[in-house]
Amino acid sequence: MSTEVRVPDIGDFTDVPVIEIHVSPGDKIAVEDPLVTLESDKATMDVPAPFAGVVKQLRVSIGDRVSEGSVLLAMDLIDGAGPASSPERAAAPPPPVSSDRGRDTQVLVIGSGPGGYTAAFRAADLGLRTTLVERYDSLGGVCLNVGCIPSKALLHAARVVTETEEMAERGITFGKPKLDLPLLISWKQNVVDRLTGGLAGLARQRKVEVVTGTARFDGANAVVVGDRTISFENCIVAAGSSAATLPDLPDDPRIIDSTGALVPEQIPRRLLVIGGGIIGLEMATVYDALGSRVTVVELLDQLIPGCDADLVKVLEQRISSRYEAIRLGVSVTSIKPQKTALKVYFSTGESEAFDRVLVAVGRKPNGNELGVEAAGVDVDSRGFIPVDRKMRTNVPGIYAIGDIAGEPQLAHKASHEGKVAAEVIAGHDVEFDARAIPSVAYTDPEVAWMGLTEAEARSQGVQYEKASFPWAASGRALSLGRDDGLTKVLIEPGTRRLLGAGIVGIGAGELIAETVHALEMGADALDVALTIHPHPTLSETVGFSAEMATGIITDLMPPRPRPTRPADASG
């Protein structure tokens, strides 16, 4: 028996484009298998199979516009198969959740960055009907679209360029790189598109409704997105942060933020980076490798404030020989646009001309951008929304995660907080209780740290012991031609437990994970030292630094008399 499958009731939407077709003629499908995906200006929706059968003929193509009743395909029913209810009801998208309070959705997530999409997907996996609101056209938030991912693609390109330059000192010379900037930017965008497209697919598979637009609260149980009001039982605010700005800057396209830095029309001859934090230094790394003469100006007396000075020193020594200037304890007082350049005036009384100025002075939370006061949610003076360890705000049923919920403003923190919020809503007894959240500057060399820093220990009056292993003694670092590195651990006196760690060197962001795991597990220095690391690797430096802490190092002279290994510490 052959029958047609039509578009079910899709509300007030008409002429909705088909953006994806999930089946082909000859495919055998089961009830509720997705057939096609439709996309309105507000949401995407799958049309599921109303009964089991074999696809006979497709009647639509990608890009076709359909409305309720439009024929999508013809199917041959499998003998004995039939819809559990009428075809019209069975084929309709899942109805809004039915609850005692009659809300449109059980969980509304605002923002689809790493924290937001993780929260939405986890909530859906736990059986909660979930709606995800994103103001941009693609999922992924700042991180995937204009932050973490595209910047790392460009940083990889920068590393390839500098690595080929360095090989000239080791007997292999390449020609000068030829930069095809549009092609480089296109490749970077392809990386982004693959990831954001993957998120869209995961949302469809989990039946998470995606609504495009900017959400503003309309009371404690609803938000308005465009001309639509969405009521909810629970809301997870994951609206992230925005690039901070400086006051009184002129309106000139040559003054850019980190988003603009990711899509350059050309590589400037001279670039000024205002801000010596992670974002500014990562972009400086890219532009330096691609040919700019870079100057970095930082108001404080150290690059990457918050990181220990001994780690930053290794980075600063390398970039000082590459960059045109690094100016610490200096601020920009004004910028005057000129016809061919930007005249920048510094607090020292000096001035210089630059082709581009990148403002990278940090990020500010978006707590004041959502109208949360309409829901009674507290927001502090900086724009953060205070939460407890279950990610709950002061208003029952409203949660906050990620950049908007407090420092550190890091994607991996947001992801873990998102899972906690979703699981708390689902009734699980969980809390966000991370003992260490790693930070990484993907500069060249990379700088990574976790747990307690020396600066924090001193300010808090915490007693600690430090042990460091210089990469100049690492066979792997030497064979890579990059011995400009350092691995250190901070140990609690008495218990010898790991308190913190820091690494500077190529790949430091990958290496720091072992120390995070060790701290979370309550490992002591001997646990790490007796963990057999492969040789020769950079990961050995973690083990070597722990050996320095325990005094059993043999690759260097130990810092204290060699102790006898405890009898119960055989491995």
What is the residue-mean pLDDT, rounded to a whole number? 92
The proportion of strand residues reads 25-35%
Secondary-structure class = alpha/beta
Number of helices: 14
Oligomer: single chain
In short:
The protein has 571 residues and is of the alpha/beta class. 27% of the residues lie in helices and 26% in strands. Strands 2, 4, 5, 7, 9, 10, 11, 12, 13, 14 and 25 form an eleven-stranded mixed beta sheet that branches. The chain has a five-stranded parallel beta sheet with strand order 16-23-17-18-19. The chain has a five-stranded antiparallel beta sheet with strand order 26-27-30-29-28, sandwiched between helices.
Outline the structure in words.
- Helix 4 (148-166) packs across helix 7 (278-289).
- Residues 81-100 and 567-571 have low confidence and may be disordered.
- With 571 residues, the chain is α/β, with parallel strands linked by helices.
- Helix content is 27%, strand content 26%.
- The chain contains 14 helices and 30 strands.
- The longest helix has 25 residues, at 181-205.
- It is globular and about 80 Å long.
- The strands form 6 sheets. Strands 2, 4, 5, 7, 9, 10, 11, 12, 13, 14 and 25 form an 11-stranded mixed β-sheet that branches.
